Amino acid sequence: MNMASFRTVIGLEVHVQLKTRTKLFCRCSTRFGAPPNTQVCPVCTGMPGALPKLNRRALELAVLAGMALHCEIPRFTKWDRKNYFYPDLPKGYQISQYDLPVSQNGYLEIGDDQGRFASKRVGIIRAHLEEDAGKSMHDEAAGVAESRIDLNRTGTPLLEIVSRPDMASAREAKAYLTELKLLLEYLGVSDCNMQEGSLRVDANVNLHIDTDSGTIATPIVEVKNMNSFRAVERALEFEARRQYDQWRQTGERLGDVPKQTRGWDDQREVTVPQREKEESSDYRYFPDPDLVPVVWSDAELAAIRQRLGASPREVRSRLIQEAGLSAYDAGVLVQQGPAMIAYWDAVIAEGVSPKRAANWLQQDILRLLKERSESIDEFPVSAEQLAELLRQVESGKLNTTRGREVLTVMVEEGRDLVSSMESLGIREVDASELETLCRELLQKNPSVVEDVRAGKVKAIGALIGQARKLNPNADPGAVRNLLMEMVNRS
Amino acid sequence: MIDSATVEKIARLARLELSEAEVERFAGELGRILAYVEQLGELNTDDVEPLAHPLDLTNALDDDMPSPSLPREEVLKNAPAHDGDCFLVPPVL
After folding, report:
1. Staple partner for A157: which of A6, A18, A205, B88, CB 3.0–4.6 Å?
2. What does the pLDDT look like over A415-440, one tens digit per residue?
3. Domain locations in chain B as residue ranges
4. Other CB atoms within 10 A of residue B68 CB
5. Is A310 exposed, middle or buried (0-12, 13-18, 19+ CB in 10 A)?
6. In chain B, which residues have their Cβ closer than 8 Å to the Cβ of A278?
7. Is residue A123 classed as helix, strand or coil in its secondary structure?
8. Per-residue pLDDT tens over the stretch B50-83
9. What top-level class would CATH report for the domain B4-41?
C-alpha cells in the first residue's frame, strides 16, 4: 500500500500569565505558591455587588506583546463574558475578549539554525486578555469523594495568543513556541514557566492529504494536556500519524464528524479522546456591563511602543554582526534569556574579545550554572570579575586550564580574582626560573632529546607534562618553545 | 417563536431543571420578551455606532498595587463544604 503524501497543518493557542503583581480585575496578589484561598476577594469570587477594575499594567503588557508580534492595536477594545459552569469558575463566567481584542493580525518569524526548515512567518490571528480560572485538585489514588478547589489563581491575567494554522510540522510548532517564549521573556511580559502553569499550549491539528481525486482535509483535532515543549512535539508527531491511519481506515474528512478534543498521555505517549464539556461551544458571549471599554490615544500607544526592547531575533543578529559570532553561538546565548545577554554585554564592555567571551559563557559559565542550579542573576562572579579573569587569559598570564581553575575558586569560594590566584599559588614564572626548569628536564631525559633530534618532535610532549607537575605556573606553550630551542641549540 | 427544545437547551446551559409545564410556559414568555425587544429592529441604525457600554466612560484603570485579600475563614465560610483550606465540590476528573 502506497503512503499518500500529506501535509500536517498546525495552529497553536498559547496562554501566558502576564507578569503583574495583582490580578486582572482586582488587587489580590498573584504570587505563586501561597496557601490555598488566601489571595481571594469578593471581586475574584464574583460576589454580588463587587465591581471589577482593569489592571493598567496587565493591559499595557498585553499591548506590548501585541506590538512585538507585529499586531495591529485597535483604538477600541472591550471586555466580554464567556458563560459556562465549572467548579473552578466561581462567577459562572470568565471575563475575556470576544470580537474586539486588544491586538490582532500579526506574525512571529521562526527559523531553524540547522536549516531543517526554511524560515517563515507564522501568522498571529489575535492576542487577547482574559482572566484565569481557579485550580481543582483531585486525589484519585486516595479515592476521595470530593475535589478540592483553590481560587488563588482565579482572575490572574492571561494573554491568549492564537496563531494561524501556519505550522507544517511538530518541529515548526516547537520552534514557534520556543521563539514566542523567548520573545515574551525578553519583553518582560511573562515568565513563561510551564511548571508553574504560566505558559499553557493547546494545538489544533489536521492533515491535507493528496489523493487521486484532489486534496482532502482530515477532521481538526484539538490536542490538550501537553506539559512541556517536548510533549507538544511528540503529541503532534503522534497525532499526525494517528490521523493518517484513521483516514486510511475510515476515510473521514473535515466536516464528517464534530471537532474532537484529545489529551496527550505523556506516559503512554498517545493522544486519547477527552470527555467534552457539555454544550461547551455555547458560551453566550456578551459585553461585560461591569467594565467600560478602553480607547487608546496616539500618545498612549507611542509611550508603550517606546518600551519595546530588542527582540531575541534582533539580539541574535546584533551578536552575529557586531561581535562576529556564528549563528549557532548567537542562538545559544540568546536562548539563555535577557539576563545572560546583559551579562554578555557587560563582559564585552570591559574589552574582552567576543569570541573568547562566547566560548567561556557557553562552556564554563553555562556548565557552572547548571551544576549549581542557578540563574545568571544569582551567579557569584560578576561580569566585571569574569572580564578581569579573561583579560589575564588573553594576555597569556593564565592559560585556559589555569583560568578554569581560577574561575572555579572564584565561584566556589566567592573570592575575587587576585585572592583566587593567590590561593592556587599562581604567580608569574620568570625567565631564569623557566630556563632552570627546562634544563633539568632535558638533563633527566636524554632519550627524549635523542628522539626529538631524530625528528620525533612529538616526544617533547612528555616533558611538558612533567613540567606542569614540577611547576604548575609554568606556561606550557612557553615551556615547549624553550625546550625546543634548547634541544636545537645544543 | 421559541420552541421547547430551545428552552430546554437554555435551561441546561443555566443548570436549571424545568418541569414540562414550565418549559411550555417559558417558551411562551421568552417568545414574548424576544418579540418585544425585536421591535428595536424596526429602527434604522445605519449611521449609529455600536454601543459597547451605556456609560459614556472609558479607560477605568487601576494601578497594579496589591491590597489585602479576604481572610480565608471569610472566603470559605458560606461554602456548602470545605476542609479549612479548600472548597470541596463533587469530583472533577
Report:
1. A18
2. 888 888 888 777 777 778 888 888 88
3. 4-41
4. 10
5. middle
6. 12
7. strand
8. 888 888 899 999 999 999 999 999 999 999 999 9
9. mainly alpha
List, for residues A113-154, the tens digit of each pLDDT value. 788 999 999 999 999 999 999 999 987 766 668 899 999 999
Single residue among A402, A423, A444 that ends a domain in this structure: A423
- Cβ-defined contact of A55 to B12 (cutoff 8 Å): no
Single out the residue of A106, A136, A104, A103 nearest to residue A121, CA to CA.
A106
CB pairs under 8 A between A and B: 129
- How confident is the model over B17-54, as pLDDT tens digits? 999 999 999 999 999 999 999 999 999 999 998 888 88
Nearest to B69 among A28, A146, A295 (CB): A28
Residues A137 and A281 in one domain: yes
DSSP A291: S
pLDDT 10s digits, A385-406: 999 999 988 887 788 888 898 9
Rounded to whole angstroms, the Cα distance separating B32 from B38 reads: 10
B64 with A20: Cβ contact below 8 A: yes
The amino acid present at B70, given as its one-letter code, is L
- For B39-93, the DSSP string reads GGGGS--TT-PPPS-SSS----EE-S-------HHHHHTTSS-B-SSSEEES---
Cβ atoms within 10 Å of A215's Cβ, excluding its own: 12
Place of cell 633530534: A453
- Least Cα distance to A189 among A203, A197, A202, A199 occurs for A199
Which three three-digit cell numbers place residue A315?
539580539
Based on the domain organization, do A292 and A166 belong to the same domain? yes
Residue type, A295: V
pTM attached to this predicted model? 0.85
Residues A343 and A452 in one domain: no
| In a shared domain, residues A328 and A443 | no
- Establish if B28 touches chain A: CB-CB under 8 angstroms: no
Query: What distance in Å separates the CA atoms of residue A288 and residue A293, rounded to the nearest whole number?
Result: 10
- Cβ neighbours of B1 (radius 10 Å): 12
Rg of chain B in Å (alpha carbons):
22
Per-residue H/E/C for A370-399: HHHCCCHHHCCCCHHHHHHHHHHHHCCCCC
Which residues, including other chains, have CB under 8 Å from residue B71's CB and lie 6 or more apart?
Answer: none
Please, what is the average pLDDT of chain A?
A: 91
- At A259, the pLDDT band (50, 70, 90 cuts) reads confident
Q: Provide the number of structural domains found in chain A.
A: 3
